[in-house]
Amino acid sequence: MTATPEATEATPTIVLVGHGMVGQRFLEALAARGLTATHRVVVLCEEPRPAYDRVALTSYFSGRTPEELSMTDMEFINDHGIELYVGDPAETVDRAARTVTAKSGKVFAYDTLVLATGSYPFVPPVPNKDAEGCFVYRTIEDLLAIEEYAKTKATTGAVVGGGLLGLEAAGALKGLGLTSHIVEFAPRLMPVQVDEGGGAALLRTIEEMGLTVHTGVGTQEIVVDEAGAVTGMKLSDGSELATDLVVFSAGVRPRDQLARDCGLTVGERGGITVDEQCRTVADPHVFAIGECALAADGRVYGLVAPGYEQAETAAATIAQDESAFTGADLSTKLKLLGVDVASFGDAHGATEDCLDVVYSDSRAGLYKKLVIGRDGTLLGGILVGDAEAYGTLKAFTGSVPPVSPESLVLPAGAGESVQLGPTALPDDAIICSCNNVRKGTIRGAVTEHNCTTVPEVKKCTKAGTTCGSCVKVLGQLVTAELEASGVEVDKGLCGCFAQTREELYEIVLALRINTYQDLLDRYGRDGARGGDGCEVCKPAVASIIASLAPTIGASGYVLDGEQAALQDSNDHFLANLQKNGSYSVVPRIPGGEITPEGLITIGEIARDFGLYTKITGGQRIDMFGARVEQLPLIWMRLVDAGFESGHAYGKALRTVKSCVGSTWCRYGVQDSVRMAIDLELRYRGLRSPHKLKSAVSGCARECAEAQSKDFGVIATTNGWNLYVGGNGGATPRHADLLAQDLSDAELIRLIDRFLMFYIRTADRLERTSTWLERIPGGLDHIRDVVVEDSLGICEELESLMAAHVANYADEWATTINNPDKLARFVSFVNAPDTPDPVVGFVPERDQVKPDLPLLSIGMRPAEDLLEGSAQR
Amino acid sequence: MTLAPETTDLKVQLQLADGWFTVCDLSALLPGRGVAALLPDGRQVALFRDRAGELYAIDNRDPFGGAAVLSRGLTGTHRGRPFVASPLLKQRFDLRTGECLDDESVRVATYGVRAR
User: Fold this and answer.
1) Would the pTM of this model clear 0.90, i.e. be above it?
2) Nearest CA in chain A to B59
3) Global ipTM
4) Which residues of A touch B50 (CB under 8 A)?
């Protein structure tokens, strides 16, 4: 990318200063309007990386990498010919000459200049505010610096400011293992969003998490040692707080210096003054959008949604379309330190003569307030601790809800509580405020654009693609719309069962049905009863029966009786079928820990049977090329040496990978190998809707890649963090943090519940990652169920797992001691000693590989065969 | 290794060009699962027995992948047609006609089979 000022003579140039979320949205709006084709577009970005999701900044500490936070698709930038200069901020603007000079010295002529410079953190002017150990919380670079300092030089941290960002910062410090304090000048936390009652509910919950909150006090001075590093803070009540690290998070100010320097009008309290088209009042060639702009309604908006609207307005105006930004809703729904906090509309009851409806339960950390007009109109509200109703309530704001307001804030089960569905909303109700998508548009996506799933609707309408808080409402709307348009979605498992896998699980468990035939004959579809079932439901039901075996009185051995006929081919032979009809064998190596003797045994077996060996991604050894009749012989030797089935063939727990942990590693903080072995031995043999992978890392460096697993564990100085729903494979997904700083027992109890809840409710062949994204309420719901026990089923989940653990037996050991079962392990029923002639091998890199031409020929001359001469 | 001890006198027989070829005891066939048999001319046959006791025999070779593994597939019924799903890539084959339910242009050989 090089600057080519000459080009401006032919094509008009738009220069965008600032590449944050709003800047990126502006570029997308330009492209959508075709302006990138008719204009040269230059972007000057100060930060060393292009636009990223600043709203989700804190998720860096729960494992999202800077790359994952990125909102910039370089293909988009390149495809639209956008010149993006990263790490090169604009230094001066010459409005007379219409040029911008960047820090690098490059000069860009513009026809239109768009300022999207955002804001900067306000640091109160206290002595030593710039001392070593003082930080702000705004950019990825700030976070990296805080992380580094916290790990090497601090045990205690204090955040100045108890607002939204302050609480996020405090949560981050706690996550880094620091003893954390919050110092807020106002008498309550989050003074802008919540009132006194909401602040009290929030305070209680946050203090219970182990954070110390100081409200009603200001910071007077940062105390430093001789070397100039922070040691504490002097507070306005005369007390002193000892701390090694201070994060200033006391609000932000518009970044308007560039505008001031070139003579643009700015507001008294900052912000570049613009009109309803986001054009600066002083210069029609210059626009300002986002947090640096003082909008026509006299406000500076510090939220991303209004910034997006301004970006759209500016792009529309440049395209000479009509558009105006006249003000925006300040509603927000956040999850701070795991606490739901939402405020919407006239949250503080500023409207004349308005009334409050309040429900408060400080014991449970709940506070809900609705502000109602004299005529019953819902004007706004505050929700703390439970913001489930946010989407619906916000959409009703400005109208008279169809039910009494008190019924909307009472908790479920408390008499009058009413769950008001989004179907009751008018079509012009805004469902997604980040992207300004109305209910009518979402309905249209289903009825006119044939979307049938939430991901399709998200793609079609952009709803739910920014903060995600409306996704639940989105799901309800899509389902309602599909049902209304008469789309009968057959949710049945297959042609044999009209029930879902989850429903079948409930039937099997409740009625203790322990054979497939019984289930099919009693609960199958009419035409399927008494029949043979199919390849879809047989393994699915076999899996349910196996998961629940001890509880429903079925055999825990998957080849016992009828179960043998139901298993997928691999489970039936307890090995993995390969392309030429041979099998691979994977013994369990818990946690990836193996003795030299174990390695030698595996090596000897592989050598004696001529097997190809390879190390798997799950820290085990895979042996390929075993003929079906060799499997029992191989396993007799493996079982003798103390190995067990690794279940590489099953929809079951595969491996629990580990790093070497605190025993050897200089960085390890917990014994990850021991924990991995414990977990692998606990859950081995557990049949589930799909395979399960796990890993345990001994420190935050995460060498075991636990965040790509169905359940991953990462050590902290205080215990273990549990992540769930991760996946590698074709659609990788980082796992979500379910709970932090758990003891060994807490960790195991939570995994027990999580796995059993997954087994109970997932679809067939649905990995935890897709399950977590599919089920209504997502991670929050799962957390409610398995952490808070909101359904009251945790005791049952734990006892089901306890039964599994108590009844585990190695299925290969059982098989080699059962002559009837061993008889199945032959290539030919009428020639048990003859190997399959199609299974042949040729050498490659000192090992063997399948003889593929043999497959295409299919068979050899008959005479060779019955002699059994087709040896490898 | 030997086969399971006899529990019945009935034998499974395949119809070949030169008459009926005895393969194994009927008891070796588990309802819902298959076994493979080797013919004197080197061909391989997959034999199945369904829940009602009916017997089926088709060529053992999966025409898509080439491996002789159809006997190891899962069986079922699709719209009244008994089938086996290949354990390689899951294509289903009609046990009566040999026709592939997922690709009409593909068919495997079938054999007459009886128990006596």
Assistant:
1) no
2) A858
3) 0.91
4) 532
